[in-house]
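Deliverable D4.2, example record:
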Amino acid sequence: MKQFNVEIKKTARYFQIGEITARTKEVWFVLHGYGQLANYFLKKFNILDNGQRVIIAPEGLHRFYWKGYSGKVVASWMTKEDRLSDVKDYIQFLDGIYSHLQIESMVHVKLLGFSQGTATACRWALLGDSKFDELILWSGTFPRDINYNEHKQELNTLNVKLVIGEQDEFYSMEEAVAHQDWVTRQGVNVEFSSFSGGHVIDEETLLNMV
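Output generated by the structure prediction step:
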């Protein structure tokens, strides 16, 4: 048996708070985690809306029913099946959004990935064509399939931040510290911070990122 891959056109979506104008100082791209939808995830960032900041939430290309065959619909960025094709597809999709927005060069651009979205954010920042000033990895890890030593110079211009809840049920503090140590040994500088809470976007910690 042989496998064949065919490129197709697909309609994807993203959600946005604010409008990009001459007054815009900052744009955030926020990537949701596994089993979420971008419109609901984006609501967690309403507190950042100050009239000069725009927040963009793209949605993973794979939607499915969370339980059974009906009810709540959620999305994900990829699975282990044909993963390289999924990575290529979502980077092309994300670069397409960035290009469509026509962000001026003087605008500060931040990329935040939450949970499964941390791996997506890393791959987009390093393998895509879009330009970012900061990279925030929240409640997730750097994907192991990237040569960080090769990309360390690029990463060290992104002011990388790793954020974890002290009661995170999916990602322990011990794992986070060990992961930070591993990435640091690759030559990548990472600012580590934590908050009292679980696998969530903490508003106070988020506001400290602006």
